[in-house]
C-alpha cells in the first residue's frame, strides 16, 4: 500500500483536521463527532440539510457543505456508514424549528444508522426529520429480494438542487418532495479500470487484470456485476449510457444534466474524452444537454474509472442548479 | 469489582473473550468481506468490541441486563456500517429481555431469541439470504432443542455454536439477497458470509465463557 498517510487508523480524523484548516471561511468541524458544519449553521427558519456516509468518496459529502448545499455532513470510517450519535448531534445542531432533511445513499448500513438517528432525535427533542434515500444505480436489479439500487451520482446533483431550494426558504415537506423528484428522474452507471485499497485493509479490495474492466461498479470497491475485456472509450460510453437511457426511460426531446464522474484515479483528460463520447450518444438519441458536470465528485478512493449520471430536468431544476453555491467541492455564482 | 455477581462476571468474560477473538480474526473477517462486500467488517467489529472492553474497564455493572444494554449502545455508537445497528440492537434487546429475570438456560434462550428478533426487525433478512441470520437462526433452534432435552447452559451454548458454524458454512453456495453482497448477484456464490462468521465467533466464545 502506497498512500499519503501517517497511520491507517487516523486517516479520517486527520483529513477532517485538514478540511478545517483549509476552509475556515466556510466550514467548522466537530472533530469529536466527525461532523463538518457550514460555518453559519444553523440558519433561522431554514430547513437543515444533512447527509453523510462512509469516507473515501471525497468531495462527497463534507466538500458539499456550505451556501446552497448541505448544512452538515457526518463522516464515517472509510466506506463505513457513520453512527447514529453523529447524525443525532448534527440534526439537533442545524434544526431551528423548520425541520431537517436527511439525504441518505441506499446502502444497508447507511439506511439503518440514519433510521436509528431519526428515531432517537424525534424521541429526544421532537425534531421533525424527513429522509430521502437515493437509489439511482441501474447496475443493480431493484427487487424486494435485494438491498435495492445503490445511491451514487444523483446524490451530488440532488444535494446541489435541493440545497438551493432550502436556501430559498421552502418548507421541509417541499424540500423533501423536490429531493424525491430529483432522485426519481436520475439514473447512473459506473465502471472501473482498477480496484482501490482501503487504508485499514492495506491491499486492493479485488484484483483486476491489466486487460480487464468491471462494469456496474459501485463506490465502495465492491466488485461490479460483470467483468469484461478492456474496450475503447467509445464502447465503454455505450455500455454506460445505453442502460441508463433505457431505464427511466429518457427519450427524444428530453433535457438532462449530464454528469461524467471520475472515481478518484482517472485524470480529467480521460473524463473529458469520455464526456465527448457521452455527448455524442445523447445527441444521437435526440436528448438535449441543459447543463453538464465533469470531474471527480463522488469517488471510490484511488479507483480508476468513471460513472455516467443523467438527470432529466425541467426549467425549475435548471434554475435551482444554476443558483449560487459556495462549497469546497462546488462553487459558482457566489 | 469485588461484589460483582458471578453472572455479571461470566457475561463480562464473554464480552472480553469475544473482543479478543474478533481482534485476532479481524484480518480474516475483512478478507471475507473483501470478496463480497467492502472490506471493513473485521476492522469495524474490532473497533466496536475494543470500545466495549474500554467501557468494561472503567464501569462496574450490578446486573447482566445493564451490562448487555451498555454493550449494545457502545456497538451502535462505534461500529458503523450495517453491523453496528444489527449487533447493537441484538445486545440491547438481549439485555432488555433479561431485566429482572432469573438467568436459567431457558430464560437466556428467550433473551437470545429477543436479541435476534431485533436483528430481523432492522435487517429484514430471511434464512437463505446469505446474512448473519443464517447462523443465528439454526443456533437458536439448536439451543432450544438442547434445553428442552434437559441440557444445561454449557450444552445449549455448545449446540448453538455448532449449529451456527454449520449455518455459516451453508452460506458459501448461496446467492446474497441482502446487504452489500447482494449487488454482486450470482457472483456472491462461493464465498462465506462475513456476518455469519462473526456471529459464530461470538457464539463459540459464549460456549467457552458463559457456562
Automatic annotation (TrEMBL), chain A:
GO biological process: one example: glycerol catabolic process
* Top EC group: transferase
| Statement: the UniProt record of this protein carries the keyword Manganese | no
Catalyzes what?
dihydroxyacetone + phosphoenolpyruvate = dihydroxyacetone phosphate + pyruvate
**What is a single cellular component term in the Gene Ontology annotation?**
cytosol
Q: What is its EC number?
A: 2.7.1.121
Give any GO molecular function from the UniProt entry: glycerone kinase activity
One Pfam entry name: Dak1
Keyword line: Glycerol metabolism, Kinase, Transferase
Which pathway does it operate in?
A: Polyol metabolism; glycerol degradation
Indicate the segments annotated as coiled coil, or none if absent: none
Q: Which residues form the DhaK domain?
A: 7-332
Q: How does it assemble?
A: Homodimer. The dihydroxyacetone kinase complex is composed of a homodimer of DhaM, a homodimer of DhaK and the subunit DhaL.
Official protein name in the record: phosphoenolpyruvate--glycerone phosphotransferase
Q: What gene makes this protein?
A: dhaK
Amino acid at each position: 500500500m502506497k498512500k499519503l498517510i501517517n497511520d491507517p487508523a487516523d486517516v479520517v480524523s486527520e483529513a477532517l483536521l485538514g478540511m478545517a484548516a483549509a476552509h475556515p471561511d466556510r466550514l467548522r468541524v466537530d472533530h469529536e463527532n466527525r461532523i463538518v458544519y457550514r460555518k453559519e449553521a444553523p440558519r433561522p427558519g431554514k430547513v437543515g440539510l444533512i447527509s453523510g456516509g462512509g469516507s473515501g468518496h471525497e468531495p462527497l459529502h463534507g466538500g458539499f457543505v456550505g451556501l446552497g448545499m448541505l448544512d452538515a455532513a457526518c463522516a464515517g470510517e472509510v466506506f463505513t456508514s457513520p453512527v447514529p450519535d453523529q447524525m443525532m448531534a448534527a440534526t439537533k445542531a442545524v434544526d431551528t424549528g423548520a425541520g431537517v432533511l436527511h439525504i441518505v445513499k441506499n446502502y444497508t448500513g447507511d439506511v439503518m444508522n440514519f433510521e436509528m438517528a431519526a428515531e432517537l432525535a424525534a424521541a429526544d427533542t421532537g425534531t421533525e426529520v424527513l429522509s430521502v434515500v437515493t437509489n439511482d444505480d441501474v447496475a443493480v436489479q431493484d427487487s424486494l429480494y435485494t438491498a435495492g439500487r445503490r445511491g451514487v451520482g444523483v446524490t451530488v446533483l440532488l444535494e446541489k438542487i435541493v440545497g438551493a431550494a432550502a436556501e430559498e426558504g421552502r418548507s421541509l415537506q417541499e424540500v423533501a418532495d423536490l429531493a424525491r423528484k430529483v432522485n426519481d428522474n436520475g439514473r447512473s452507471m459506473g465502471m472501473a479500470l482498477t480496484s482501490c485499497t482501503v487504508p485499514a485493509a492495506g491491499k486492493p479490495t479485488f484484483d483486476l487484470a491489466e486487460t480487464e474492466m468491471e462494469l456496474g461498479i459501485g463506490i465502495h470497491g465492491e466488485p461490479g456485476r460483470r467483468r469484461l475485456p478492456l474496450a475503447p472509450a467509445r464502447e465503454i460510453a455505450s455500455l454506460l449510457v445505453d442502460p441508463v437511457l433505457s431505464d427511466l426511460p429518457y427519450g427524444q426531446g428530453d433535457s438532462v444534466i449530464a454528469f461524467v464522474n471520475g472515481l478518484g484515479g482517472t485524470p480529467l483528460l480521460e473524463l473529458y474524452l469520455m464526456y465527448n463520447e457521452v455527448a455524442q450518444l445523447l445527441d444521437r438519441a435526440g436528448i438535449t444537454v441543459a447543463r453538464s458536470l465533469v470531474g471527480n465528485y463522488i469517488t471510490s478512493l484511488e479507483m480508476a474509472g468513471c460513472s455516467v449520471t443523467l438527470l432529466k430536468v425541467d426549467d425549475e431544476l435548471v434554475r435551482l442548479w444554476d443558483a449560487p453555491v459556495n462549497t469546497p467541492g462546488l462553487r459558482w455564482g457566489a | 469489582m469485588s461484589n460483582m455477581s458471578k453472572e455479571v462476571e461470566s457475561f463480562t468474560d464473554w464480552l472480553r473473550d469475544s473482543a479478543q477473538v474478533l481482534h485476532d480474526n479481524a484480518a480474516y473477517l475483512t478478507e471475507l468481506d473483501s470478496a463480497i462486500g467492502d472490506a471493513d467488517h473485521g476492522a469495524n467489529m474490532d473497533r466496536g468490541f475494543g470500545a466495549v472492553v474500554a467501557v468494561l474497564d472503567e464501569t462496574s455493572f450490578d446486573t447482566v441486563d445493564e451490562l448487555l444494554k451498555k454493550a449494545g449502545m457502545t456497538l451502535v455508537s462505534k461500529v458503523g456500517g450495517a453491523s453496528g445497528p444489527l449487533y447493537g440492537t441484538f445486545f440491547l434487546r438481549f439485555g432488555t429481555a433479561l431485566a429482572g429475570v432469573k438467568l436459567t438456560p431457558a430464560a437466556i434462550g428467550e433473551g437470545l431469541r429477543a436479541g435476534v428478533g431485533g436483528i430481523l426487525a432492522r435487517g429484514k433478512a430471511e434464512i437463505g439470504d446469505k446474512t448473519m441470520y443464517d447462523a443465528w437462526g439454526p443456533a437458536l433452534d439448536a439451543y432450544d432443542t438442547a434445553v428442552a432435552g434437559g441440557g444445561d447452559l454449557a450444552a445449549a451454548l455448545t449446540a448453538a455454536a455448532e449449529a451456527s458454524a454449520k449455518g455459516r458454512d451453508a452460506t458459501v453456495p448461496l446467492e446474497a439477497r441482502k446487504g452489500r453482497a447482494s449487488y454482486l448477484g450470482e457472483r456472491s456464490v462461493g464465498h462465506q458470509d462475513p456476518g455469519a462468521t462473526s456471529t459464530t465467533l461470538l457464539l463459540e466464545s459464549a460456549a467457552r465463557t458463559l457456562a
